[in-house]
Amino acid sequence: MIAVPSPPNASPQVAMVGGGQLARMTHQAAIAMGQSLRVLAADAADPAAQVSPDVVIGSHTDLEALRRVAAGSAALTFDHEHVPTELLEKLVAEGVNVAPPPSALVHAQDKLVMRRRLEALGARVPRYAAIERLDDVDEFVRRVDGGPLVLKAVRGGYDGRGVQMAADVAQARAIAGQYLDSGVPVLVEERVAMRCELAALVARSPFGQGAAWPVVETVQRDGICVLVIAPAPSLPDHVGAAAQQLALSLAAELGVVGVLAVELFETVDGKLLVNELAMRPHNSGHWTMDGSRTSQFEQHLRAVLDYPLGDTETIAPVTVMANVLGAAQTPTMSLDERLHHLFARMPDARVHLYGKEERLGRKIGHINFLGSDAAELANLRERAERAAHWLSDGEWTDGWDPHAGDDAVGAPPAAER
User: Fold this and answer.
1) Angle subtended by helix axes 135-144 and 169-181, to nearest 10
2) Measured between alpha carbons, how far is residue 256 from residues 17, 176, 273 in Å?
3) Which residues of 281-310 are buried (b: 16+ CB within 10 A; e: fewer)?
């Protein structure tokens, strides 16, 4: 780590475990607050390590690396949830302000702990069972009267990893057997018949102040979020308010400090079931960078430092966020040139790139589009998906050739040239 002298009247130091895009965007927010985020990164090429002047290179499973990044910080927080609980408890015992504390974070780390605690708090969750032997799968299937199943690794999954669908009990047994043979704890859940997936994003400070953004709809493909619509369209006001209140209540009950994302299923009969929890800035909140008065990244810093929380009011009636994912084959056109053409055609696109190497399915950036009227949603969504595909694959889905001029197939209207 390169020692950088602190400026006069320096702001409190915040340290973040993990050097991914969430840490990178948190660092951007920190700059405006007179801060520089200290980052524990696995590699100097990690997205946050590229931009922060204060980087510790090391593993999140190495206690000494955690101690180095936490030294002198006002708060230690997270880009991901994979730090072993026992290491965080040691840091707390040594006087480190871990935010969220390990007693809260474990509910985002361990799906079985989460499910059991949520049930105890009265929150609805999909029916589930811990699998210790293969016969447990059969017993669960009998309890839920059959149907498609979901198998989940209890710890370590993200972006669809560690989650597998099973059409029947035989397939569920085979998947569970693979997990158990690898020494990975596993649980089985019913596959919920749902109308859509939602996310309720809130923040909570140590003082106990809470703030909630509008509930959003998330669109998943192959277990990866590809689109977020804020606020969730066609969501009744009372359902949105119930989701916000649920998230704020869980944040308080679990003792969360910082941002909490509650991923929800809205069932076909209008019920809300909690799917996952994340105690950090979250993909479902990237729209807030351009569509809200306070971004989730600034809010997370405010919360862990116990500052008064920011205004979560929307700036526009509708915001659509599209993730940019690495393509099956990296385009020959550079990402910078693709960005050039995107801005030429869609100057209102708000692009956020992460400095990551392109590979299949990897999140390399996101794009926000703001609409002045909710009636624009269909067009806004189409443009967001088209823009994300262009940055991913280097081709326009409507056949437009950026080098062929106004007579090209699919030439855009003047507003998109």
Assistant:
1) 140
2) 17, 32, 20
3) bbbbbbbbbbbbebbbbbbbbbbbbbbebb
Peptide bond into 185 cis (omega under 30): no
Q: Order of strands across the sheet with 14-17?
A: 55-57, 38-41, 14-17, 75-78
Residue 46, φ and ψ in degrees, nearest 5: -60, 150
Beta strands in 109-223 (DSSP E): 128-131, 149-153, 163-166, 186-190, 194-204, 210-212, 216-221
Cβ atoms of 176 and 151 within 8 Å: the answer is: yes
| Rg over CA atoms, the chain | 22
Contact present, 255 and 278 (Cβ < 8 Å): no
- Give me the residue label for tokens 């708000």: 350
pLDDT, block means (10 residues), the chain with 417 residues: 53 95 98 94 97 97 98 97 97 98 97 97 96 94 88 79 88 93 93 94 97 97 93 94 98 98 94 96 98 98 98 97 96 97 97 97 97 93 98 95 59 49
Residue 280 in contact with residue 22, Cβ under 8 Å?
A: yes
State the DSSP code for 310.
P
CA dist., res. 326 & res. 131, Å (int): 34
> Which pTM value belongs to this model?
0.92
DSSP string, 192-235: P-EEEEEEEEEEE-TT--EEEPPPEEEEEETTEEEEEEESPTT-
Distance CA 254, CA 110 (A): 14
CB 73 within 8 A of CB 301: no
Instruction: Give 320's strand partners.
Output: 229, 369
Listing DSSP states for 15-54 in one string gives EEE--SHHHHHHHHHHHHTT---EEEESSTTSTTTTT-S-
